[in-house]
């Protein structure tokens, strides 16, 4: 997919990545949004992309 303009950041872009179970969106290289079809699919993304995750279910 091509880069799309990020409305909130001048000159920034939005990138999308998809698999059968996960949709990822990167905003201006700073924010990563992740949507999983299932909780285990989202957990797999968290394991592959380590770091601090906001709103992680307990």
Q: Can you walk through the features of this model?
A:
The structure is a single chain. By secondary structure, the chain is an alpha+beta fold. It has one domain (4-48). 17% of the residues lie in helices and 34% in strands. The protein has 1 helix and 4 strands; from the N terminus they run ββββα. The chain has one helix at 39-48, and strands spanning 4-5, 13-18, 22-27, 31-36. A 4-stranded antiparallel sheet has the order 1-2-3-4, covered by helices on one side. The longest helix is centred in the last third of the chain and has 10 residues, at 39-48. It is globular, with a radius of gyration of 12 Å. The termini are far apart. The relative contact order is 0.17. The mean pLDDT is 85.
Topology:
Elements: E1 4-5, E2 13-18, E3 22-27, E4 31-36, H1 39-48
Antiparallel strand pairs: 1-2, 2-3, 3-4
Keyword list:
58 residues, alpha+beta, 4 strands, 17% helix
Give a brief description.
It is built from 1 helix and 4 strands.
Going across the major beta sheet, what is the strand order? 1-2-3-4
User: How would you describe the oligomerization state of the chains in this entry?
Assistant: single chain
Give the percentage of residues in beta strands.
25-35%
What is the CA-atom radius of gyration, in angstroms?
12 Å
Helix content: 10-25%
Report the total helices.
1
Number of domains: 1
The end-to-end distance, rounded to whole angstroms, is 33 Å
